Amino acid sequence: MHSRGISVVLNDLFRTGHCVGSIPKDQADALLRLVKQDTFLPDKPGSPDIAEWESDDPSKNLNVPPEYLSFMENLGSSPDLEHFRAHMGDWSRVNVMLQRGRRGDSMGWHHDAYDPMHLICMVYLSDELWTPEDGGLLQLGEGDIDDMGFITKDIHVHSSVSPNHGTLVWCINTNPRWVHQVTAINTDKPRYTLIGQFGYRENVMRSTVRKRYGEALR
Asked: Which residues form the Fe2OG dioxygenase domain (predicted)?
């Protein structure tokens, strides 16, 4: 991980719920070569495709390729995140997912509540340059929530991030006021997203979240 300074990362995370950085180019290039060899399956209409090895329960997925898992475990143990580990302990749960976005795909404002984790990251991989006009922007925002913890319509956008090669975005995932979305993709350029989630096996909310929010929640 290309560090922007630990204090900068922490202040960004605790001020707006996210920070934007990058991983070394050689790591990004190696990951891109791997993802191009993956098989992807369609998900819900208008949503990105998902890697064939993914599972409906990421915390119980034993099929994550070791190259992806070791990369995420190393990322989660970086000095930039030492503050989190010092306060809460080393991560005992690391989930990995992989998506491929295509023209027309998008994701609305959401908070990753379906399998609660304390911290999440997104690593973007592509061999083409993305501009804002291409769409596929990761937008990170903040807004008020209702009595069920769902975000209301009035959302303030803090950042819009193009999914360029090697871009790394960290998000705190314990505050439902901090949400993110992906704007519609307007190009045929491939948009690969390697997602990491970091948390603890003792997280009890995980077992009740579907009961609270409904079986359709993902």
From this structure: 90-202
